[in-house]
Amino acid sequence: MLSDCPGCNVQIRFPHDASIIRCPECGETFSIKGLHANPRGWRIALFGTLLTFNYYFTFPFIYSDILAFVFLSLVGTSVTLGGLMMSVNDKRRVGNGFYLLEAALAVVVAGHAYVIMSMGSIS
Questions:
Q1: Which of the residues 40, 42, 101, 118 has the least number of beta carbons within 10 Å of its own beta carbon?
Q2: Is residue 42's pLDDT more than 80?
Q3: Would you put residue 9 in left (φ > 0), alpha (ψ -120 to 50) or beta?
Q4: pLDDT band at 45, cuts 50/70/90?
Q5: Are 45 and 103 in contact (CB under 8 A)?
Q6: pTM for this prediction
Q7: Which helix (H) or strand (E) element contains residue 4?
Q8: d(CA 105, CA 41)
């Protein structure tokens, strides 16, 4: 597992069964019980989700440009999946193995992208 030292911000690698860590650089001792994953991945994923499902917000205002909806949906899908991968990586780094929300949102967004990509084949 990896963590940043709260004293000097050096990244420290340690075994996942450790409970107290001592920084080799500054000598500060800290507990890993309170470590949480960085929420940056979720922030990016939520922004991408707004882009993905943009037609729910913009349809009353711009209803004639279907290419803009498709483009924003596909860009939003990429941004969302990238943010979800960052979130999983951050959770893995602090030893949190609960990825159910990330997996569920990835399935919903990927299914939506499939529907958007196959719209032209529906007749």
A1: 118
A2: yes
A3: left
A4: very high
A5: no
A6: 0.68
A7: strand 2-4
A8: 13
Return the pLDDT at 80: 96
Q: How confident is the model at residue 102 (pLDDT cuts 50, 70, 90)?
A: very high
Tokens 């949102």 sit at which residue?
Answer: 105
State the residue for tokens 């569920």. Answer: 104
- Mean local confidence (pLDDT), 37-62: 82
CA–CA gap between residue 17 and residue 110 (Å, rounded): 35
Dihedral sign, CA of 56, 58, 60, 62?
A: negative
CB-based burial label for 80 (10 Å; 0-12, 13-18, 19+): buried
CB distance 76 to 51 below 8 Å: yes
